[in-house]
Amino acid sequence: MSEPRDWSTALPPRGPVRPARHVLPPGNDRRPRRAARILSWIAVVTSVAVLALAGTGYVLINKYDGRITRLSDVFGNRDNAPPAAKNNAQTYLIVGSDSRGDLKAGEGPQGRGKNFVTGQRSDTVILAHLYGGKSNKVQMVSFPRDSVVQIPAYTDPKTKKTSPAQRNRINQAFQIGGPALLVQTVQDLTGVRIDHYLQIDFNGFKSMVDKLGGVDVCLSKPARDRFSGINLSAGKHHINGDVALAFVRQRKGLAGGDIDRIKRQQQFLGSMIRKVFSAGVLANPLKLNGFLNVATSSLQADDGLEFKQLRDLALRMKSVGAGNVIFATIPITTSNGYDRRLGSVVLIDQEKAAALFGAIQRDEAPGTPKPKPTGAAAAGQPLTVSPGAIRVKVFNGSGVTGLGRKAAGELAAVGFQPVGTPETRGTGATATTVFYGPDKADSARTLVAAVPGSTMALDPSLGRVLQIVVGTSYTGAKQVKATKPAAAAPNATPTPKVITALDDPCAA
Q1: Alpha-carbon distance 38 to 400, whole Å?
Q2: Are residues 341 and 390 in the same domain?
Q3: Can you tell me the distance from the alpha carbon of 283 to that of 280, in angstroms, rounded to the nearest whole number?
Q4: What is the pTM (predicted TM-score) of this model?
């Protein structure tokens, strides 16, 4: 038996630190993190789009399509699946599989270590939502492999072996039930219907990076870990496939464990996307062809993902810039929770996760401005505009002589600014209504609060001046005071920044 490598002398005493060769030492972690096998999926379909627009695109895409392995029975019975997304949006489940197939210990690049385990595991799970309608955004939500979820009962269609419903790590669903059980588990967890399934393996990830000519990554501090083989100094590096794999699979030595690893994976995916979008790849037929050859050969997809859908997906992805690929991680309460049966686990924040996936179900992209509430809903909001800043035109709609002038005087007395002389607008109105323009809902709330019994209504034709039509129910105006929006509590969780593939730490 060879002597264990002395990792304490693996680094040079000074000068630039060279990336370590990707070799796992004997006795490595029994659960090696073969992470991010799918980090170039978006890059794949984007590149295909370029060929789709070329004269020979149809022939080439058929060639690449034929290389993809098809998986049957991924979705099973759709009767209990969540409803289809709005606006014809599409959702993909992308899985990085630690596939070992029939390998024995010591065979292949994944066969190192005395604790080698045969079979396959989902090392990376990403829910990719392509927003519908006119949106060109893509949301990619990562799930830590140790996230605790409820796995439904499952019967293997081949062996007929039944696995009971269980509370376990999310990667356990893939291990015992393959793609079908993982799809069902994620759908139950998120309430989001999964339309298609994509899976890529360990070797495919490394080969795609190499075919791109490597990618750039940046580190704020050195990354050294004997289990993953990573050995990089702080700063900018151009890395190949072997080092890239070590970069995205490192977990030990990261304060946040899987969560920090996901952040690193997202950084790397952003770098790959920017590389594929660059002219250096898109305008180089040889590089593009080599990249697509290894990418499609490593890809597995559900058998319902037809050529036409792949082509349409590729054409759509061509219009998606790096700034529209949005990264997120399922909200968690802790990344180092402990379960007596499972050991160290990641615990999901159910309330925040429901909000995240609820927005996806409604096809609401992050960063999309939400319309301000109107009508009764708006009237119940806090007052943020003081009466002295509000100009209002008064109309008498009641038919009662002098009620308009009375209302104008009373509004002025409590601080509002009546404009001009009150006018008549019809007769016999009972209710008092405040009309406001598109950007004056905040002012209208203050006026409604000052006139008991009144309601508010949007009039898109109005500008900065509000209008109030006084009805017979008008009983007077009262003093109101605007309050400043409540300050966030000291320990409140800030609104998370939207992270996209355009964010390049190497550009800082």
Answers
A1: 73
A2: no
A3: 6
A4: 0.62
